[in-house]
Amino acid sequence: xxxxxxxxxxxxxxxxxxxxxxxxxxxxxxxxxxxxxxxxxxxxxxxxxxxxxxxxxxxxxxxxxxxxxxxxxxxxxxxxxxxxxxxxxxxxxxxxxxxxxxxxxxxxxxxxxxxxxxxxxxxxxxxxxxxxxxxxxxxxxxxxxxxxxxxxxxxxxxxxxxxxxxxxxxxxxxxxxxxxxxxxxxxxxxxxxxxxxxxxxxxxxxxxxxxxxxxxx
Length: 217
What we know:
Distance between the termini: 53 Å
Shape: globular
Structural class: mainly beta
Largest sheet: 6 strands, mixed
Helix content: under 10%
Strand content: 25-35%
Number of helices: 1
């Protein structure tokens, strides 16, 4: 009995550590263990990205076969839902869109400070977002603890609308690979990325290019 307990206790501690962080819950990200229809879920989904940048972006799942977990209409407002128990003193988050399988992510909302404490965050799909497949990215830089970057990506579908718009008069196959170039790129740090940025513990990140839609601070 003693031997069994000596081995099971570290296992329990390890399990709690793995499940302690945060993850995107709605829309469901690629390979999320919260999705009952996923064949090969990633049970370490709440873990941060590798410091080497090896799994940036999207934990390496940006090229998975496309199965959208949500459909959004340009110009409409929706809600991002997060899941988990360890907010690491809050921090700053960004919501972004990619139309080129993760090569570029354009910011549609920045939350400065106390993220992800609220767990629910409204966001708006840009009116000029072209119809077709896209990735919705959620990135988070924790305020307390090891300097890390968290990123989850959901496969989504941008639908057509009845209103006239030049962006929807063009076939998704013919659209520019980065159709939202007017929006800033996501902030990247702690993952051996461009500029070799590292965030400062105890301070919520103030994104240098937060975009037009900003919440907090």
